[in-house]
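Example 3.2
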Amino acid sequence: MASLSLIVLVSLLFSIGFSSALGSPIERTSALFVFGDSTVDSGNNNYLDTIPENRADYEPYGQNGFFQTPTGRFSDGRVLVDFIAEHAKLPLIPPFSQPSADYTNGANFASGGAGVLSETNQGLAIDLQTQLKNFEEVQKSLREKLGEEKAKKLISEAIYFISIGSNDYMIGYLSNQKTQESYTPEQFVGMVIGNLTQTIQALYQTGGRKFAFLNLSPLGCLPALRAMNPQPNGGGCFEGASALALGHSNALKSVLPNLEYMLTGFKYANSNFYDWLQDRISNPSKHGFKDGVNACCGTGPYGGIFTCGGNKKVKEYKLCEKAEDYVWWDSFHPTEKIHEQLAKELWNGPSVGPYSLEDLFFDKEKLTIADVVDIDNNPQASSLV
């Protein structure tokens, strides 16, 4: 029987390797639907009547040459989901608001300045609930284009990437004295997570099964918040902001296993983005950077006054020579190099779990020796050869 097991093992491994080389369904990728804020916005705010701080369709944004002109991405080039699409063998995912966009590979609903709560930057960004409604429009469009069955399959196999929450804490809480008087930090985090959970459940109800989340960064170490630290200690981070971000990330980490238990077929990839980015802020040279504190584009202490582009209230801004030397592109957003490194980490890095993005996109089934040895105890094993 041992020889039979060996034959089965060789046959299965050969079959997997050969079919993968031919580009069989084992290697077929899934669509990507993106929800979030400026961390992943690919240009939706270009079509929105909003303030300059919530747009990035002007120079020097997108200056590194990958795109011919600024696209609305809050970066010197590409953002995280562009690199994820590349790893997944997908084209760039179009913003939902782009006229005549093709959604068969997915759609990006993210909006710079958006929050989980509709009150965050209300009227100046596309909040998460509205993004969900826009997704329902895309669903309808896909049903009309592909037919009911193919659309249903696309929706169920797609990855739903969610990166949102920072603006709820920076704008909705820290910049709002009334909100701080009404809610403790713990209560406010609970409200944000509660609303985010409802959106996840709503996406599940529409057919979504595979989800990926980008937890919040150490918000107090953004150049803008470092500059406005009410208790500066030699350039230290604004600990109150970072505590809110860490509380959010820990709460989401607790909620996701419960959703996995309650919702049949729910799979997710979650990341420790907080520590991952903090390491690059504190030890930039270890990761190929020269500066983890100051913004490449901006003015004032740490480049923390959000003037990049010169079209805001304060016109003056400074621009560094090499953005790739910096962790931070502007007062709030990281450089393309950070986005690229982060995408690689989320794809198959050690800080992601329980699934990686690679697992979710390609539904990889890992064949082990133990799986094959078990054939010895299977009376129907002979039918496999």
